[in-house]
Amino acid sequence: MDAITFTVLSVLMVASAIRVVLNRSPVYSALSLVMLMSLLAVYFLYLDAHMVGVLQIIVYAGAVMVLFLFVIMLLNLQDSIQDYRQEKLWTMGILCATLFGELWFFFGRAGGESSAQHAVPEGFGTVISLSQKLFTDYLLPFEITSLLLLVAVVGAVVLAKR
User: What gap in Å lies between CA 106 and CA 71, rounded to an integer?
Assistant: First the structure.
């Protein structure tokens, strides 16, 4: 990935992340989060992790965000939104200062060391390597996650019937 593409994607990601925090409407915040997750998938595509990039769009930008929007619509948060702009600005200032401090610390340490890139293993990000890891090493967390999502959907349906 060249520097111009990296810079443009980074600026777009930071802008959509700021829109997630500063939007007054939770629906627009969720849509900004979809944009952020889609831009993150572009990074994965540039890293030749095509499967991870596609899963980023399908799972996070698709399924998880539909679930978030369903909960937002179910709770009907439009009536209870108050103006917390000043508090959000202070929070954003603290988060930005922390981020710049971490970047300064990281680049200060990395500047003295050699910046040789580590080679990715053969088959990184392919369907075969991902499925072998998922269904052997991480089978139990995968199944627990599916049960938690099932409980969340059943709980949302029960709450919606009231």
Answer: 38
- Between vectors from CA 140 to CA 138 and to CA 142, what angle results, nearest 5°? 65
Query: Residue 61 and residue 53: Cα distance in Å, rounded?
Result: 11
**CB atoms closer than 10 angstroms to residue 66:** 12
Distance (Å, rounded) from C-alpha 56 to C-alpha 47? 13
CA Rg value for the chain: 20
Q: Residue 96: in which H helix or E strand, if any?
A: helix 85-112
Q: What is the pLDDT of residues 62-87, one digit of tens each?
A: 888 777 777 777 776 554 445 455 55
DSSP 46: H
Whole-model pTM: value is 0.56
Determine the angle formed by the axes of helices 85-112 and 3-22, rounding to 10 degrees: 150
Cβ contact 16:39 at 8 Å: yes
Question: What is the architecture, at CATH level 2, of domain 1-107?
Answer: Up-down Bundle (1.20)
